[in-house]
Amino acid sequence: LGDKGALLLPRDEETPELVTAPLVTAVDTVGSGDSLNGALVFLLAHRPELNMREILRRACAVPRTAAPTKA
Prior knowledge:
With 71 residues, the chain is mainly alpha-helical. 41% of the residues lie in helices and 8% in strands. The protein is built from three helices and two strands. It has helices at 32-46, 52-61, 63-66, and strands at residues 6-8, 17-19. It has a two-stranded antiparallel sheet with strand order 1-2. The two termini are 26 Å apart.
């Protein structure tokens, strides 16, 4: 979903939930998806106490630190 965030479909619900990404004005988005995926895998492996909604929320925040922005 790119700058929109990620979709979460909880097992007990039929409607997907949009987990939004923080807004950033990036000049280059190369590596943003990779940083989100890396954060997602890291959080799944190392923070089992977090629920999936919180894991996605945190993972969606990581690409803004990887994408160069205008000064």
